[in-house]
Amino acid sequence: MNIIIIIALAIIQGATEFLPISSSGHLVLAYKIFGIQSNTILLSVILHLATLVSVIIYYRRDIWQLLKHPLCKTNISLTVSTIITCVIALVLKPHIESAFGGDWLWLGFVITAIILIIAQYTSKKNGYIYDITNLNISKVQAISIGIAQGVACFPGISRSGSTIATGLMCKCDRDSATKYSFLLSISIIIASTLLEIIEYANTPAPLGFNILELSIGFAVAVLMGLGAIHAMTRLVAKQKLYYFSFYLLILSIVVAFI
């Protein structure tokens, strides 16, 4: 039974981390369905590390170029967005933690659906990225995306959906908005994972999964993450993000009445 649960959670985390449907919101639902009420921190760390590996593998060439040019325009924009996100997350931390109880999860899904619909009819501009170190993201756009990512710390509000949609609404071209969102996820996943590790170190607790089960879950989450990133880049390019809004609206109704 444990292996089925860990694979299911890995699939959910790997797919929903990058698709615009909120990984945190779906994990809250999954924990309720499987009756997992405690000792989830270490499991969350493993799954977050898996999605981090996914985005690093997928964008390995771009990441290498950014590492070779630490002071480039793209890195500065990513730093600005990350700082804004961290400030918002720290200020709203008590409210974010209480939201994981799931009472307002339906509202987060509705907010994400609305954002995706607005983005669908806001941006028509596509583009091609010639130089990853000089990504077409202005300071104002970087700040706006950072704010969106900070608010997306609430379960039910998709990080990828909010950041990409905000980029589109701020007149970024679709390629730049998508790639920027996924590159930005690296620092945020690292930050959230470090916080989870610190929290686990302060309150260690046994986990009901063995090393083999966790390894399988890690591998599944990596593969699902790679597939989700690829699917998301194609969907944004084809302006099909609004498809997910229908799913989220239906899910919000289900969640509100269970």
Task: Give an overview in words.
This protein has 12 helices and no strands. Helix 1 (2-16) runs antiparallel to helix 2. The mean pLDDT is 90. The two termini are 24 Å apart. It has helices at 2-16, 23-34, 41-58, 60-68, 73-91, 93-99, 105-120, 139-151, 159-169, 174-202, 211-237, 243-256. By secondary structure, it is mainly alpha-helical.
Mean pLDDT rating? 90
Count all strands and give the number. Answer: 0
Structure class: mainly alpha
Order of helices and strands: HHHHHHHHHHHH
Distance between the termini: 24 Å
The radius of gyration computed from the alpha-carbon positions, rounded to a whole number of angstroms, is 18 Å
Which stretches of 5+ consecutive residues score pLDDT under 50? none
Question: Overall 3D geometry?
Answer: globular
Proportion of residues in helical segments: over 70%
Number of helices: 12
Main sheet characteristics: none
Strand content: under 5%
Keywords:
single chain; 258 residues; mainly alpha; 12 helices
In short:
The chain has 258 residues and is mainly α.
Explain the layout of strands and helices.
Layout: H1 2-16, H2 23-34, H3 41-58, H4 60-68, H5 73-91, H6 93-99, H7 105-120, H8 139-151, H9 159-169, H10 174-202, H11 211-237, H12 243-256
Helix pairs in contact: 1-2, 1-3, 1-11, 3-10, 3-11, 5-8, 5-10, 7-9, 7-12, 8-9, 9-10, 10-11
